[in-house]
Amino acid sequence: ISPVRLTLPAPPAPEDACAQAISIAGPGGLDRLTAVSLGSRATVGYNVPEFCPPPLTPQLPASAEERRKALPPHCVLVRVHYFSVNYADVTIRWGLYESALRYVGWPIVPGFDLSGVVEWAGSES
User: Fold this and answer.
1) Are 39 and 61 in contact (CB under 8 A)?
2) How far is CA 121 from CA 42, 63, 83, 124, in A?
């Protein structure tokens, strides 16, 4: 088996830089992966669908204070520094993670494990 390389778009110029997420449109090969530019959006946890459906938030306000006001009180805002792709992410990609398919659906942004800095914690979190 020969290794397969995922080719992503070239990084933006520093003045245009923004975060990106890899979105999985459905089970299958590399053709099902898409690099999504987040702009002023963020990825959203799958346990808060009442805020917005995963995988991405709507456009968020520019100021940190306005972003915090837009979040439900049981949420936590984390600036992600690192994430991993774990076995659950892999089985989602294969189309085998039944609860993810039933409760989340497609598209899915992988990376359930993360580390970073908590920027805001709601009063009910």
Assistant:
1) no
2) 16, 16, 20, 8
